[in-house]
Amino acid sequence: MQKIYGLEIKEDGNDLVFQTNPIVTNYQEFLRLKLPNGWLTDDTKEAKVNGVKLKKYTIEDNMLNSEWIDRRTLDQEYGIYCGIGNSINDFKLYSPYDSDTGVRSVLFSGTWPSEWQENKNQIETDVDGLRIKRENNLDYFNVRDLQKLNILPNTKATRVIYLNIKDLQEIGLIK
After folding, report:
1. How far is CA 109 from CA 87, 93, 138, 142, 173, in A?
2. Rounded CA gap, 175 and 173, in Å?
3. 40 to each of 14, 92, 125, how far by Cα in Å?
4. FRET partner for 52 with CA separation of 20 to 30 A, picked from 63, 87, 123, 153?
5. CA atoms within 13 A on the CB side of 162
């Protein structure tokens, strides 16, 4: 929302606050949603507050468990893309785009184990210090290995809150 509407959304205690950037001369708070007690920290995924549907998403929702992250989440949450290397049997993990150069750098290169691409499920295996596995045709990477290889940071955001656009339009916050 900040990129589109110039609004900043921040957590203030148990409130979700929609405001202009605090450094703007004419600072203005547009909306304050009082979140249900404990909603930010408990396992509840959805809530409706003042007519606005909220959905809480954590990176762990797309992880096999806290030890594994799938390739789509790796790209969506960290901008790290898993692509084909020099052949169909090779893979590379690429950094997010560098805004100055417009390119991605190679963070890791590896070779899939033989017959990896032919099977829907693959047991855990090590590729040059990076444990990988496949479940239902989705490749997973070991989070601790990605951190040891300096591909993932040791800290990460724990949640993202999504807001229903139609609800925001109905209450007049956005057009």
Report:
1. 11, 7, 18, 15, 46
2. 7
3. 8, 36, 36
4. 63
5. 9
